[in-house]
């Protein structure tokens, strides 16, 4: 490199690569000025604008995504709240059903007791009536028997114990026979 | 247009590349400040190509990018994020973004013409453009510093705080030379010399190939395979150098601006 330059310097005094010609500077300046102005005025503002737009678009998308997430979260919250409500309501319904069931059982128990009481009362009344009827018929029969016994007693002397007992035995035998007779008649 | 092998085919002898290639004869407006030669024409062409490409790439921009738009956005995003905002922060990065973007795109595109067949000469291969861009960077960082610290920029640059005063006798000249002279000079020369060297290498390889293949003939033709392989490799290398130099130039400009902005401490 160095030798080349040296040789060049020896060959021609006019050629010196470090001393610019005027036209060299002029055209350099013209070309660079055009390029500089072109980038300054046109290209860089255009690119900057598009980059800003892109940044905005990305930010917009991020905002949109945030919004969507917020909505989803709100919906989830709502669902959770509804679910809790539904659970509470179900619990309430179950509770009231249980109470209703208890009430029904109690009522049934009550009515059964009443029925039992009624039945018992009726039965007792019936028994009482039957007893009354028995008492009435017994009284009639006892009356007859008493009259029969009395007439028998009056017909015999009551002084003698043996007699008396014989009378009674006869009466009972008569009674027995009359009964068997009536049973035989039947 | 085939200036790659200008001398090898003329008289049969082998001529290496020469610096004259960087000063081709003008064909328009000769002798005026607007003289156009081959390299100036390449620069104008590159400028038009840049305008057309970026116009097409940003013509119908959509929020969801298509392929072409993605490439343009990726390139501009690289400059914005990796150079401007990394070094200068969001606010100052945005302020100086147009300058840095135009700088990077210009240098990359002008560098690439060095390997475009038919053009074969980097737009940055003559000192005018590197020097101009270095001066722009120079003005930019001085402007940034003076605007931010109107009273103290030059004082802090030349008399760094916290240094015992007798040392200023040494420090101040060093600071002056490194900040206000070496910075633009190195910026311009680094780019220029890379491009000149790249061009020289390519010309050397391909003119040697041509010489071995067509002029020397016989068994020498075999050498052409080697020289062509080197030429191919250096073409790929130039592609890399073109991007790297643009990155370095733009990055250093951003660094100088950043230093000027943060001069206080």
Automatic annotation (TrEMBL), chain A:
Pfam families: ATP-synt_B (PF00430). Residues 48-96 form a coiled coil. InterPro entries: ATP_synth_B-like_membr_sf, ATP_synth_b/b'su_bac/chlpt, ATP_synth_F0_bsu_bac, ATP_synthase_B_chain. The chain crosses the membrane at residues 25-44. Gene3D superfamilies: F1F0 ATP synthase subunit B, membrane domain. It is found in: Cell membrane. The keyword Coiled coil applies. GO terms for cellular component: plasma membrane; proton-transporting ATP synthase complex. Keywords: ATP synthesis, Cell membrane, CF(0), Coiled coil, Hydrogen ion transport, Ion transport, Membrane, Transmembrane, Transmembrane helix, Transport. SUPFAM superfamilies: F1F0 ATP synthase subunit B, membrane domain. It is a single-pass membrane protein. Its main location: membrane. GO terms for molecular function: proton-transporting ATP synthase activity, rotational mechanism; proton-transporting ATPase activity, rotational mechanism. F(1)F(0) ATP synthase produces ATP from ADP in the presence of a proton or sodium gradient. F-type ATPases consist of two structural domains, F(1) containing the extramembraneous catalytic core and F(0) containing the membrane proton channel, linked together by a central stalk and a peripheral stalk. During catalysis, ATP synthesis in the catalytic domain of F(1) is coupled via a rotary mechanism of the central stalk subunits to proton translocation. Component of the F(0) channel, it forms part of the peripheral stalk, linking F(1) to F(0). Belongs to the ATPase B chain family. F-type ATPases have 2 components, F(1) - the catalytic core - and F(0) - the membrane proton channel. F(1) has five subunits: alpha(3), beta(3), gamma(1), delta(1), epsilon(1). F(0) has three main subunits: a(1), b(2) and c(10-14). The alpha and beta chains form an alternating ring which encloses part of the gamma chain. F(1) is attached to F(0) by a central stalk formed by the gamma and epsilon chains, while a peripheral stalk is formed by the delta and b chains. HAMAP family: ATP_synth_b_bprime. This is ATP synthase subunit b. It comes from Orlajensenia leifsoniae. The lineage of its organism: Bacteria, Bacillati, Actinomycetota, Actinomycetes, Micrococcales. The gene is atpF.
UniProtKB/TrEMBL annotation, chain B:
InterPro entries: ATP_synth_F0_asu, ATP_synth_F0_asu_bact/mt, F0_ATP_A_sf. Key component of the proton channel; it plays a direct role in the translocation of protons across the membrane. The keyword Cell membrane applies. It comes from Orlajensenia leifsoniae. The keyword Nucleus does not apply. Its main location: membrane. This is ATP synthase subunit a. Belongs to the ATPase A chain family. It is found in: Cell membrane; Membrane. It is a multi-pass membrane protein. The chain crosses the membrane at residues 36-56, 96-119, 126-146, 201-222, 228-257. GO terms for molecular function: proton-transporting ATP synthase activity, rotational mechanism. CDD domains: ATP-synt_Fo_a_6. It holds the Pfam family ATP-synt_A. One of its GO terms (cellular component) is plasma membrane. Keywords: ATP synthesis, Cell membrane, CF(0), Hydrogen ion transport, Ion transport, Membrane, Transmembrane, Transmembrane helix, Transport.
């Amino acid at each position: 490199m160095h030798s080349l330059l040296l040789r060049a310097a020896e060959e021609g005094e006019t050629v010196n690569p470090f001393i610019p010609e005027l036209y060299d500077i002029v055209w350099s300046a013209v070309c660079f000025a055009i390029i500089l102005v072109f980038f300054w005025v046109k290209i860089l503002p255009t690119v900057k604008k598009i980059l800003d737009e892109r940044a905005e678009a990305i930010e917009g998308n991020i905002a949109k995504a945030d919004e969507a997430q917020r909505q989803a979260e709100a919906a989830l919250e709502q669902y959770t709240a509804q679910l809790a409500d539904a659970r509470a309501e179900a619990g309430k319904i179950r509770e009231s059903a249980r109470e209703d069931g208890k009430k029904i059982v109690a009522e049934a128990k009550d009515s059964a007791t009443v029925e039992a009481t009624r039945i018992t009362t009726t039965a007792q009344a019936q028994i009482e009536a039957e007893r009354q009827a028995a008492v009435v018929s017994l009284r009639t029969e006892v009356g007859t028997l008493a009259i029969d016994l009395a007439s028998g007693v009056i017909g015999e002397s009551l002084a003698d114990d043996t007699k008396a007992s014989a009378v009674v035995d006869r009466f009972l035998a008569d009674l027995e026979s009359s009964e068997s007779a009536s049973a035989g008649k039947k | 247009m085939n200036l790659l092998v200008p001398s090898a085919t003329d008289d049969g002898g082998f001529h290496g590349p020469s610096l004259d290639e960087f000063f081709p004869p003008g064909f328009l407006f000769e002798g005026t400040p607007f003289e156009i030669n081959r390299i100036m024409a390449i620069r104008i062409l590159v400028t038009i190509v840049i305008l057309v490409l970026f116009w097409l790439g940003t013509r119908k921009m959509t929020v969801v990018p298509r392929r072409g738009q993605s490439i343009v956005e990726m390139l501009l995003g690289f400059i914005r994020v990796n150079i401007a905002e990394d070094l200068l922060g969001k606010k100052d990065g945005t302020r100086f973004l147009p300058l840095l973007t135009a700088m990077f795109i210009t240098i990359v595109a002008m560098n690439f013409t060095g390997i475009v067949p038919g053009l074969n000469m980097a737009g940055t291969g003559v000192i005018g453009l590197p020097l101009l861009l270095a001066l722009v960077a120079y003005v930019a960082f001085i402007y940034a510093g003076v605007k931010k610290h109107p009273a103290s920029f030059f004082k802090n640059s030349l008399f760094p705080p916290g240094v015992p005063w007798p040392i200023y006798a040494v420090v101040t000249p060093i600071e002056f030379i490194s900040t206000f002279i070496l910075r633009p000079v190195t910026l311009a020369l680094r780019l220029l010399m890379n491009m000149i060297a790249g061009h020289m290498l390519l010309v050397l390889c391909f003119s040697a190939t041509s010489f071995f293949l067509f002029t020397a003939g016989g068994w020498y033709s075999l050498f052409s395979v080697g020289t062509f392989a080197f030429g191919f490799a250096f073409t790929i290398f130039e592609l890399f150098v073109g991007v790297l130099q643009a990155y370095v130039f733009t990055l250093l400009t951003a660094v100088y601006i950043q230093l000027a902005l943060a001069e206080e401490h």
